[in-house]
Design brief:
mainly beta; binds manganese (II) ion; about 45% strand; Jelly Rolls; about 0% helix; two-stranded antiparallel sheet
Length: about 140
């Protein structure tokens, strides 16, 4: 058993993978054989991820505020504090704050055998965020 009393330093979301101001707190990264990774992700208004997918899927649980999630081929959906989203393995998607609302969510992923948790693709197009239209990716 291991108790972490204080979060590690927060990490800025890299511009290659995020639009706008995003901070990530790594809450859990247990030793193998566990492949669990858990983050608390803080999005400023307008901030969101690029398109990406997770080899073993992802759970998002919104802890504060209100935002958006969209899967490829679907429409953007509003999510708010208390909502939980299951993203299927290899399902292309993005998530983030609303244009005028902060959002914080827990993000739980299971890494693949090679350690990969996320495959990143292009940024969300200007006509896709926040309207959820034009998801040609
Ligand atoms: Mn994701």
């Amino acid at each position: 058993m291991h108790v972490t009393r204080q979060r590690p330093d927060t990490q800025a979301g890299p511009a290659d993978n995020f639009t706008g101001t995003v901070w990530l707190d790594e809450l859990a990264a247990p030793q193998p054989p566990s492949r669990l990774r858990m983050f608390s992700v803080h999005f400023a208004p307008g901030a969101h991820t690029a398109w990406h997918r997770h080899p073993h899927g992802q759970v998002l649980h919104v802890t504060e505020g209100e935002g958006l999630v969209q899967r490829r081929g679907g429409e953007a959906e509003r999510i708010r504090a208390g909502d939980t989203v299951w993203i299927e393995p290899d399902e292309w998607h993005w998530h983030g704050a609303g244009p005028r609302t902060f959002m914080t969510h827990l993000a739980v992923v299971e890494a693949a055998a090679d350690g990969t948790t996320t495959e990143w693709a292009c940024h969300v197009a200007a006509d896709t965020y926040p309207a959820g239209t034009g998801s040609a990716f």
